[in-house]
Design brief:
alpha+beta, Galactose-bd-like_sf, Jelly Rolls, globular, Xaa-Pro-like_dom, 10 helices, Acyl esterase
């Protein structure tokens, strides 16, 4: 199908006196700064060389450029690739963001944004390849964001770099966010020399997880991303495509990896409180590799990515599969979870599990009572409703737990809703924790209170995909719009992102429902283009069985499970 391209932001040579590195979005952080091509080899640190601006030809003749850092005078070393459209040098990316939540001095000035640090990895006898993909910086062609063209280029580069005289022939990929997202798509192309990947915090479905989460468009945030892509050609204009094609089609499908083709070892992570969360778990669950590991944590992706505990652990993973060192990596639990409590406190740290969702999950329903704003484990008989202003109002539903409760996995919110004064509704849901006095207990992320596990729904997009949906995870098809008629009451099933959190006896769970995303003070420009007018009405009780389904987790072992005095 026809794809809209915009002119990419013109690269700025920092040597020019009149350069302007300011502007909106990422450009204010330094993106767009791109020195003129200067192929050379120089020593960036004692014993470490950088081969700068190497041209690599793709299968169609287009040339892209890469900086390769590697140990001087060493051969038979594996390479880790950082692939993204953020610029292959620190000065071409968002350098100020690089250290947010990370202790000063942790990351060297050679590190590309959200990528492996050459001055860590090269001293561990790895090479680092920072790539400007097609259309980025001075690379030829037009930028393709996470689609087939980008994936095929990744395949071509992997096969090229594996043949270099210093390379062992084993190639891995590493990095956060966009650098993780590209790994899913490239690995699905199955390049022969791609040995393993480590996508830490990677969205897997641009439409469902970024551009139209729940069907609600997020044009502003994605303009912030697309508008900052720097190159000499065009950039895949996902924003214009969203405005032209607001329903799922071939363009958006092309940006979803075929996870069934990923069979190499994978070590991925997920942050319970970041928008890459859903995609990270979708990728982990869907890939066909028999050697896959997931670690889910509370902290934001950047401080976790350069953590002094988990960075050496990542080295163990790469040592095992890129250097064939038998270091007992296989004994690492397949799933590890930080079970959150409140603020920076955890109920459990890296708790080992065998799968996700957990096999011992017990799903329970909390039924909404619109008349009292309460939740209960039993169905509500009396039909009632609650109305709130679609732009300013909030509806809360609470339940106080009479015993300790752990919720780990996928929740879903089943509601009966009505629009009063409009033909559509945008609904934003947060699942929160309250202390024994009824005060909100958030989780802290980069020092800011997080609103809680979330879900979104544009009601006209309520139709589910029967092939993708499960009982615990409703997934919208986004193939049609179904507007509401005056007085029409319809059921919706809202997917809530996975979570892991512990409620102590006497604490409460709250469902917060509004027509807007409720969060203050966060640095990322997370905005949604809502279409709310009039009031939203939530119905409950009787035939309107509105409920929240929660995945409760019993202890692994309970009294009676262990038979004392026997070896069986």
């Amino acid at each position: 199908m026809d794809v809209i391209y915009r002119k990419a932001k013109t690269p700025i040579d920092p040597s020019l006196e009149n350069r302007d590195a300011g502007g909106a979005g990422m450009n204010a952080m330094g993106m767009g700064v791109c020195p003129a091509l200067n192929p050379r080899t120089y020593e960036v640190a004692p014993g470490i060389i950088c081969e700068q601006d190497i041209a690599v030809e793709m299968r169609d003749g287009v040339k892209i450029y890469v900086d390769i850092f590697r140990p001087k005078d060493k051969t038979n070393i594996p390479v880790l690739i950082s692939w993204s459209f953020y610029g292959k040098r620190p000065g071409e990316g968002m350098s100020e963001w690089q250290i947010m939540g990370v202790a000063p001095g942790t990351v060297s000035k050679t590190a590309k944004f959200e990528s492996p640090d050459p001055l860590y990895w090269c001293y561990q006898d790895y090479a680092i390849a920072n790539v400007d993909p097609r259309g980025v910086g001075h690379s030829e062609g037009d930028v393709n964001c996470f689609g087939t063209q980008d994936a095929r280029d990744g395949y071509d580069f992997i096969e090229w770099v594996a043949q270099q005289p210093w390379c062992s022939g084993k190639v891995g990929m590493s990095g956060n966010s966009a650098v993780a997202m590209s790994q899913w798509r490239i690995a699905a192309e199955q390049p022969p020399h791609l040995t393993c990947i480590a996508p830490w915090e990677g969205t897997s479905d641009i439409y469902r997880e970024s551009m139209f989460e729940g069907g609600v468009p997020a044009i502003a945030f994605n303009e912030f991303i697309v508008g900052s892509i720097t190159g000499e050609g065009g950039a895949d204009d996902m924003v214009a495509m969203a405005q032209q094609s607001p329903l799922m089609n071939a363009y958006w499908e092309d940006k979803i990896p075929d996870f069934s083709k990923i069979k190499i070892p994978v070590y991925c992570t997920a942050c319970w409180n970041h928008f890459h969360l859903r995609g990270a778990f979708q990728g982990f669950r869907k890939i066909k590799s028999r050697k896959k590991w997931m670690r889910a944590h509370r902290e934001f992706e950047w401080p976790d990515g350069y953590d002094r505990v988990h960075l050496p652990e990542l080295k163990m993973f790469f040592d095992r599969y890129l250097k064939d060192i038998h270091n007992c990596w296989e004994s690492t639990p397949r799933v590890r979870l930080e079970v959150q409590d409140a603020h920076e406190f955890l109920y459990a740290l890296d708790r080992p599990e065998t799968s996700f969702p957990l096999k011992r999950t017990q799903y329970k329903k909390l039924y909404l009572d619109a008349g009292s704003g309460a939740l209960s484990f039993g169905p509500v008989e009396q039909e009632t409703s609650i109305s709130y202003d679609g732009n300013e109002g909030v509806a809360n539903f609470d339940i106080k737990f009479e015993e300790d409760v752990e919720i780990t996995g996928y929740m879903k919110l089943h509601l009966w809703v009505e629009a009063d004064g409009h033909d559509d509704m945008d609904m934003f849901v947060n699942i929160q924790k309250l202390d024994t006095k009824g005060e909100w207990l958030p989780v802290d992320v980069l020092g800011e209170p997080h609103p809680g596990a979330w879900g979104k729904m544009r009601v006209s997009h309520r139709a589910l995909d029967p092939d993708l949906s499960t009982d615990f995870q409703p997934i919208q098809s986004h193939l049609k719009e179904e507007k509401l008629s005056p007085g029409e009451i319809v059921p919706v099933d809202i997917e809530i992102v996975p979570t892991s959190r512990f409620w102590h006896k006497g604490q409460s769970l709250r469902i917060q429902i509004a027509g807007r995303y409720i969060r203050e003070g966060w640095f990322e420009p997370l905005f949604w283009d809502t279409d709310n007018h009039g009031n939203h009405i939530i119905h409950s009780g009787g035939k309107y069985d509105s409920y929240l389904q929660i995945p409760t987790i019993p202890p692994k072992y309970q009294d009676g499970d262990i038979k004392y005095g026997t070896t069986n």
